[in-house]
Amino acid sequence: MAVQGLALRVATLLTGLLECLGFAGVLFGWASLVFVFKKEHYFEDLCKQEDELVSANNTSMNNSITQQKCKAQDERFSLIFTLASFMNNFMTFPIGYVFDRFKTTVARLIAIFLYTSGTLTIAFISADSALLLFLAMPMLTVGGILFLITNLQVGNLFGKHRSTIITLHNGAFDSSSAVFLIIKLLYEQNISLRASFLFLSICSAWHVGRTFLLMPRGHIPFPLPPNYHYGLCPRNCSTETKPAESGKTERQSRELLSLKDENPGSGQQQEPRSFWTYAFSRRFAWHLVWLSVIQLWHYLFIGTLNSLLTNLAAGDRALVSSYTNAFAITQFFGMLCAPWNGLLMDRLKDKYQKEARRTGTSASVVTLRSTVPSLALTSLLCVGFALCASVPVLSLQYLTFILQVISRSFLYGGNAAFLTLAFPPEHFGKLFGLVMALSAIVSLCQFPIFTLIKGPLQNDPLYVNMTLVLVTLLTFVHPFLVYRECQDQKGRPSAAA
Fold this sequence. Notes:
By secondary structure, the chain is an all-alpha fold. It has a single domain, classed as Growth Hormone, Chain: A. The chain contains 25 helices and no strands. α16 crosses α17 (about 315-330). It is globular, with a radius of gyration of 24 Å. Keywords: Membrane, Transmembrane, Transmembrane helix.
């Protein structure tokens, strides 16, 4: 690898990590932003009727008044988060298609438009126009997930470290939730919400510059062809300047990858399989269950965190603020947790490849087998996080925050890495979008669950939590089936997906 090419690739990697860290997954810092919105009296008018009702009943239970006072306000914020998180996942299918069909530059320009529109909308709304949050937050999240998708391909530039790079980007995506904590802390230092979001809007100029200077116009193929160029390259760089030749290069790369997946001398050529063949496979179906159940836990926890802390702290705003800050700070460390997942897969893949040379096992089986420990460990972390979150002890939530951030960084990094390793690269954008879109439908359950807890269960989530913990145990089926599939295919000259 030439020094100039290495410098460009490192610059692409570092700026991509910075982009994901500062912009892509800010939605998951929602609890910090809700605290600011409440200070700004967003949706506070919804509490007036409840206040009048409590006064009419002449109750003397102050704690009960505090909890009932903002029930409607909490439900409104929960609904906004539910919609935004749904769009964050559901829209990845159409935008994944856009990324596959129209390539990197078009996808990133769409992301920049949506993100900038969202930040400008939030910057100029007030308590009177707070309903625009239903529009602004989905635009912010869809733009952010597009930033992530276009950056995941950067892993293809680094060969055997591909899984580590992919999970590193997902970790940066998780850590970006700390952005809303920074906005909250600035707000407490008298920096207005408008000023913070105007700054995020101005940063779009940086996104545009990176799109044209440090990112490919098409896709980054894997494995990389000889003399691959992208971004700021001379006019004779045929890889990026001619679309027809770019498509040809990607096809050649896929053929080369297929050949490398076969044992030397096998003489077999796999027939290309359609997207729908993979979409209806058992492997994809159980991966969808695995992602949907674990993700529901995380969305429900984040979307209801402000309400949960308010209840456990008996309405003490200073205590709620302190725990909200602690949660946001732990989210920042997601970037440090996620790479360990990718490193685990890369190391296991190297180990299994050495075994494969002795046993004649297909390289595709080796690649798939390396994902099993990651899938099982992610399920185990989620069970631990869910059990801690179910115990109504305020101080225990520090441990909950730690397990939650590790579990979530493993979840999304592992999801992207599994789809990259277990399915053909030409279908990655569509399969990634489809699994996120379908899991988004499951994530809609968080709002009725929140309403159930607030209403009939009278703020006692014990039965709901225990039910969800039992459902989470189903996620262990996925790594078990992948392991069985690898064992069944062990020793075969090729591995079907």
